[in-house]
Amino acid sequence: MTHSTEGAGTSDARADGLADFLTRAQTRLLPAPPPFYSPATYLSLNGDHALQPEKEALIPDVPPRHAAVLVPVVARPDPTILLTLRSAHLSQHAGQVAFPGGRVDPGDRDELAAALREAQEEVGLEARFVRPLGYLDGYLSGTGFWIVPVVGLVEPGYDLRLNPAEVDEAFEVPLGFLMSPRNHERQSREWKGTLRHYYVMPYEGRNIWGATAGMLRNLYDRVYA
Question: Is residue 8 predicted with pLDDT exceeding 80?
């Protein structure tokens, strides 16, 4: 496995408090969900393929499934992002750090409704505590999902009730840490006979990596870069 630190030796483009984040988010987040995945725009899309040298070899054979996640920014003076540790018993992505989220169901009005529903089902975060701020770019995962990240401001008075079938833990990570490029490591390892590249953001013994780190990097690119 190899790794490098993204932006090492550069200035630290960290979040500077809640007011700064909200000012930036108001003009830099997408006001509406990104269009659904299209093969015609594949090379310009964000996703697990974005860091790979040979992106064309990873074009999906079938259309991806529709999903949405909530990127919950907790409105503290020094804001944080609420993340989950997926249950170790899940069949996919067990034990990985993730945003609350999942598939967009036929009964969901849109991606926002899906993200809020999943957040309540997974960790008990009620929609009344969440103020939607906008959207990040869509993310094409190597596991066959087109993920729409919904950025929401979460009131600090929230109360969580974790669903043990889906989530082992929920925890907050300072936004300033996640938005500092010196904490965006690029690592690589062999997977199914191919060397794959991805972001990793190690924090207090946890590795935030893969799609979650890729979407956090997109938050940095959109709001702070």
Answer: no
Q: Where are the domains of the chain?
A: 2-34+44-55+62-223
d(CA 113, CA 101): 11
Sequence-ordered strand ranges (E) for 75-129: 80-86, 97-98, 101-103
Rounded Cα distance, 16 and 10, in Å? 17
- Banded model confidence at residue 7, pLDDT cuts 50, 70, 90: very low
- Burial call 153-180: b when 16+ CB within 10 Å, e when fewer: bbeeebeeebeeebbeebeebbbbbbbb
Q: For residue 37, what is the DSSP state? A: P
DSSP state of 173: E
Name the pTM for this structure: 0.90
CATH class name, domain 2-34+44-55+62-223:
alpha beta
